[in-house]
Amino acid sequence: MIASEEHISDHHREQHRLFRSSSQRLLIIPLIIYVVWVLETFLLEGSLGLFEHYQSLPMILYTVFANIMVGILVPLFCLGSAFRNGAVTTLQIGFRSLRRTALASTFTGLIGYVSFVTFTPYGADRLALFNMLGLVLPVAIASVMVCWVLTGTHLQAYVRHSGAFASIVAGVLITGLLFGLTALAHSPPVNQSYGILVFILTGMASAVYFFSIRDVYASSVFVAFGLAGILPSQIDPVYRDQAIPLVYGMALLSIICLIACHLYLARNFKTVRLPA
């Protein structure tokens, strides 16, 4: 009996070792993608001063290559391995049912809208709010996909055996910090010390929201409102004061790509809840 129990214990330790080794490998990939995404943000937005002065071609390149290709599509393909080895599920990464997503996104949007109208200068200029939301939505979606859907869920899978509390704390602190450090890649003066601190605090709040609600779309709306509150005094007023068709077109393209990712995952992967 003792030998049998020792054999079972050894088997469990071996399974844990293999799972942790696999998680370590999976954790490296999201971090590499994060670094590439930040570098592309710097090259296509920060170094060109895209938010300081409106530029149509850099806007297209930044949205397509940094926020859609690296920020949305690459994380999608990297999630395949995590699904197959059981590190994450479709519920954990935040792609939920249409009804739940619609309710969560509507609730988030209403709270954000009421807060901005009540407590910010946008109350007197609501067009400026929608212009800002259109500008930052591609960045918000990419941020959620890279920092939380990919990196956050893999990080939580890695520390899962340390308990739920450690998993949540690690997920919030590390992904919030990663989001905050993206300020270094943006146009001045966002990349100065005050901007970095504000980005980190926004990242922490966004991490708590994502891990609480587990919905990609609602979290993207949350981050978009956060960014819309951070950037107005630091960008070219033309973004805020004029409805630019290209800006709205890039936002729509990002939403379409996110929906396409959702449909792909729904068709190829399914998480089934088992009865307790």
Please write out the topology.
Layout: H1 2-46, H2 56-84, H3 90-93, H4 98-119, H5 126-158, H6 164-181, H7 193-213, H8 216-230, H9 237-241, H10 245-268
Could you write a compact summary of the structure shown?
This protein has helices at residues 2-46, 56-84, 90-93, 98-119, 126-158, 164-181, 193-213, 216-230, 237-241, 245-268.
Instruction: Compute the number of strand runs.
Output: 0
Shape: globular
Radius of gyration: 20 Å
Instruction: Please give the largest β-sheet.
Output: none
SSE topology string: HHHHHHHHHH
Helix count, DSSP H or I runs of 4 or more residues? 10
Structural class: mainly alpha
pLDDT < 50 stretches: none
Describe the structure.
The protein is mainly α and 276 residues long. It has helices spanning 2-46, 56-84, 90-93, 98-119, 126-158, 164-181, 193-213, 216-230, 237-241, 245-268. Helix 1 packs antiparallel against helix 5, helix 5 (126-158) crosses helix 6 and helix 6 (164-181) runs antiparallel to helix 7 (193-213). The model has no long low-confidence stretch (mean pLDDT 85).
What key attributes describe this structure?
0% strand; 276 residues; mainly alpha; globular
